[in-house]
């Protein structure tokens, strides 16, 4: 189970890296370009839109899914679940459907915890509405929209 959550943490960190790079590019090299203008016209969701484009282009979601599936036997051995159950959970998590979004102003924090991945400390925050999870590395906060099929697994994030 620990490998599963370490892999999941790695994907979250990958999202952060992609978002950070895109943010820097939009505020420096791409400033004033048609791409930056288009993103600005999208309003408050521009950052999320840009992050999702970068996330999809990076292939991180597919890499995470492959990594989880390649460690299904290890996860099963560590958790006592059958390998079939682990595969079902991976299917239900549906990483390809997770996306960067804007956290609603009325979101209520349910809890948070600290974890680290490859030497980077991250705060993961969950909300009473399980369709949102925020990660905060390097002073940046990124909120992810959790699809309904994955929401039952949000509570497992604290095992990172």
TrEMBL record:
Keywords from the UniProt entry: Membrane, Transmembrane, Transmembrane helix
Top-rank taxon: Bacteria
Keyword hit for Transmembrane: yes
Segments crossing the lipid bilayer: 7-30
This protein's name: Uncharacterized protein
């Amino acid at each position: 189970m620990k490998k599963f959550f370490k892999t999941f943490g790695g994907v979250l960190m990958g999202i952060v890296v992609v978002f950070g790079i895109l943010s820097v590019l939009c505020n420096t090299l791409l400033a004033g370009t048609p791409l930056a203008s288009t993103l600005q016209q999208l309003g408050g969701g521009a950052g999320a839109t840009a992050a999702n484009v970068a996330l999809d282009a990076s292939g991180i979601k597919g890499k995470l899914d492959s990594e989880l599936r390649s460690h299904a036997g290890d996860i099963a051995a560590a958790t006592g679940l059958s390998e079939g159950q682990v595969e079902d959970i991976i299917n239900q998590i549906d990483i390809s459907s997770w996306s960067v979004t804007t956290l609603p102003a009325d979101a209520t924090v349910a809890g948070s915890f600290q974890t680290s991945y490859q030497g980077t400390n991250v705060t993961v925050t969950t909300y009473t509405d399980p369709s949102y999870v925020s990660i905060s590395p390097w002073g940046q906060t990124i909120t992810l929209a959790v699809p309904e099929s994955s929401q039952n697994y949000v509570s497992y994030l604290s095992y990172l």
